[in-house]
Amino acid sequence: MKSVELSLKYQGKIQVVPKVPIRSYDDFSTIYTPGVAEVVKEISKDRDKSFLLTSRWNMVGIVTDGSRVLGLGDVGPEAAMPVMEGKALLFKYLGGVDAIPLPISARNQDEIVKVVKALEPSLGGVNLEDIESPKCFYVLEKLQESLSIPVWHDDQQGTAGAVLAGLINSLLLTGRGLDVKIVIFGAGAANIATVRLLSSYGFDPRNMVVIDREGVLHAERRDLDWMMFNHRWKYEVAIRTNGENARTVEEAFRGADVLIAASSPGPGVVRKEWVSLMRRPIVFALANPVPEIDPEEAVDAGAQVVATGRSDYPNQVNNSLVFPGVFRGVLDSRASRIDDRMVITASETLAEYARRSGLRRDHIVPRMDEWDFYYEVASAVAEKAVELGYARVKMKREEFRTVARKRIEEARRSVEVLAREG
Description:
Blueprint: H1 2-10, H2 27-31, H3 36-45, H4 50-53, E1 59-64, H5 77-95, E2 98-103, H6 109-119, E3 125-128, H7 135-146, E4 151-153, H8 154-173, E5 182-185, H9 189-201, E6 208-212, E7 215-216, H10 224-230, H11 232-240, H12 249-253, E8 258-261, H13 272-275, E9 282-285, H14 295-300, E10 305-308, H15 323-332, H16 340-358, H17 372-388, H18 397-420
Helix pairs in contact: 5-15, 5-18, 6-7, 8-9, 8-16, 10-11, 15-17, 16-17, 17-18
Keywords: Oxidoreductase
GO molecular function: malic enzyme activity; NAD binding; oxidoreductase activity, acting on the CH-OH group of donors, NAD or NADP as acceptor
InterPro entries: Aminoacid_DH-like_N_sf, Malate_Decarboxylase, Malic_N_dom, Malic_N_dom_sf, Malic_NAD-bd, Malic_NAD-bd_bact_type, Malic_OxRdtase, NAD(P)-bd_dom_sf
């Protein structure tokens, strides 16, 4: 496999490179001992100076326990490392962010929280990744409550943010508003977060029908008591959604406008005949590596707009559109947290950028090589952090945009120089 050959050749995807030049032996006394003692004393008097005098200001930890990696399941922290390295590379190249892969052997949810809290002095932010549900919801909530740096779970907020951006423009293209009926296929971290974010944006959860492995979620399902005690996030979705009280998959799809599938890889997980029950359907089939339904099948079934999570199809609705810009924005503003209002700002900025660059049914969100949108997302999120009172650095949006552009372009140039040098 090409990916294995690449990993063998480079022995990993990232490395640590010094920023401070070393021109002579005397430089060591400034960079390290005894000169570094002055920096230590400055920070010991004011711990916030660690953001000014060390690399902490731009450092994000990518934390996983390896319990739900891609579509492969519980592979453990060592096997999760290649994915976290790839994420770190995207952080750097797309967002100018220094990210450290941190697969940890902690398995219990409280143990994960404890480990990440202990790492806080080293980091400017935390990206949680590939942690199984419902553990991921608990870990995110506890860390957001207790840390003074932004914490984000990309499988939740990143995916939901990309979905909202694509949905805003899909509804515009097909002449519909927020009163649409939405089928949410799959009830994992991504789709539970999507229900929450869409509700925050203004969609009525009663017009959403959520389907999991057992069928349609509704307020009278036999496992509702189990959910209440073991998965309260799914329980809340079950009692808030499905105002029409659909009980079968066919009833859920009949007359629906939108399908958002983030479930098991296909093909054939979503049936063509289900899509044909919808009304001028908008279909997001986001499973990787294979969408839940083949895009051509979805079009044959009447789909007006189709998106997947893959870069080799049009309309890649993927969290890679969201997290680099969001983290660039929260790091530049030195925000203390990320909330749904900031994610919505990122989604609206992505949607607006796609409209400016040419909105079409095969272009509802920017492509990852339309680099400028990362600066736009970063500056919009930073401005929102200031507005919400989360920012320690307060500037205007244009100033944040200039800073973000400079940092992202510098990172990209450094990678390109290394590539040219072989």
